[in-house]
Amino acid sequence: MSTTVPSTGAAGDHRAISAAALIAIYMQAVNISIPNAALPHIQATLSMANDEVGWVFSSYIAASAVTMSITQWLAGRYGRKAVYQAALAIFTFGLVLDTLATTSIQFVLARILQGAASGPLAPLSLAILLEVTPARHARMSLASTVCSLLGISTGPAIGGWLSEYYGWASIFYVSLPMTAFIFMTMASLLSEKRAERSQPFDFFGLTTFSVGMIGLQMLLDRGERLEWFASTEIWAEAVASVLGFYLFSVHVLTTREHFLRTALFRDRNLVLSTVISFALGFVLLPTLALTSPMLEELLNYPVDTTGYMTIPRGVALVGALVLTSLVPGQVDYRPFLMGGMALVVYANWLMLGYSPAMDWRPVVEAGMLQGAGLGMLLPALARAAFGTLDPKLRPEGGALINLSRLYGSTIGIAVVQLFFYANTQAVHVALAKHLTPFRVAAHGAGPIGKPSLAALNGMVTHQAATVAVIDQFEILMFAMLVVIPLVFFLRKPRPAG
């Protein structure tokens, strides 16, 4: 039961609310990836080390995942409109703090605040869309997904162009007019809605699960810098992660009600789709996190050009998503899952052929193929997950799928960053072990000085970094390859009606 303040119900009001909700979904998503192409400028200004770059993305996503989990409880307890406007206000404050940061730690903390505020925006916006357009649920759900993917896909292009011509702070200022429009529209037109009786929420389960995930995230992010278990901090993070997951597992097995109900895990399709969704997230954002630095630092492309080169991937992703969504429900979704996975694997296999001598074409071609594969996967995966699930469990099932994709992205970014720097060092040692003044002089026209030797070492470092980046695309390829067999264990969806 809920209480709702009466609204005018005018069609114009509903259109304005729908537009504001879709813009909010786009804004929440675009702020995940908008720093991507602008990273060189951000690093230079904030003296951010290379191994801290992943925090720009993972801090935002991890904070968003935590608050997204409690959105339904917050809206029921304090009111949908109140939570929505509070999230917008905090999000705006986080945007301002991003621009005022003078150190990498300040910037990451601002991103955590911004991400935490963004968590409720997408699920509440979707709920509002479905409420004001009751006759067009399928169309509105598709529109919200398209807006989210457009945000992630266009973020690097927008961020690269703005940072190149107006400074990196402008990539956050661009969201301020959107937050103002959304806030004023919802304040004037959206009716309040809250539950008459506050439902209990499993804070212990969410806390222990979050501690386990955040501890694992920090361990992967900080381990290489702190020499792993030679550091007290790494030990603390490892203990926190193990303890968090242990307490969560015991809690799930010994209590009847928790924030992820046991009934969800009795549906085979949902469980398998959750695993596939994790792999999808593992590929979706880490590819962007690898491609832009490769183009900018190794191939010397300007940041705006780097951003533009991500656009074909986004266009292919959204186009394939829309076309696959139009396939009638009677058609078996499993061939689309297999086709999408095959395209992603093939695209990542093409990325293994990248080299310093290539032009822009291989990057665009591989990106388009990967985007098309991911676009096929998303709607087919939704049909797989919810086709056999009890309709009463679908809201929680959707939350589980979203969490798995978000945490897949954060873990994926951490893993590729970790292996990138470890592989760079290993390849550098292998290539440079014979690079000594005496050995180089023996093969040259005469003695070689320290400046020339340093230049040679720079060339070796460049080659090592290139090899390391390509190796990470191989990791992403295998992440998708290993989940392909799961498709054969999916059941066909129940017939409609």
How does this model look, in words?
- Keywords: Membrane, Transmembrane, Transmembrane helix.
- The chain has 497 residues and is mainly alpha-helical.
- It folds into three domains: 12-189, Growth Hormone, Chain: A; 202-258; 276-497, MFS general substrate transporter like domains (Growth Hormone, Chain: A, Up-down Bundle), CATH 1.20.1250.20.
- Helices cover 74% and strands 1% of the residues.
- The chain has helices at residues 11-33, 39-46, 53-69, 71-78, 80-100, 104-118, 121-132, 137-166, 170-173, 176-189, 203-222, 232-254, 268-298, 303-308, 311-325, 334-351, 361-386, 394-432, 437-442, 450-481, and strands spanning 2-4, 193-195.
- A two-stranded antiparallel sheet has the order 1-2.
- α4 crosses α5 (80-100), α8 runs antiparallel to α15 and α11 packs parallel to α18.
- Residues 1-8 have low confidence and may be disordered.
> What structural category do the secondary elements indicate?
mainly alpha
Helix content: over 70%
Going across the biggest sheet, name each strand in turn.
Answer: 1-2
The N- and C-terminal alpha carbons lie at a distance of 27 Å
| Main sheet makeup | 2 strands, antiparallel
As for the number of domains, it is: 3
The whole-number mean of residue pLDDT values reads 82
Short description:
This protein is mainly α. The protein has helices at residues 11-33, 39-46, 53-69, 71-78, 80-100, 104-118, 121-132, 137-166, 170-173, 176-189, 203-222, 232-254, 268-298, 303-308, 311-325, 334-351, 361-386, 394-432, 437-442, 450-481, and strands spanning 2-4, 193-195.
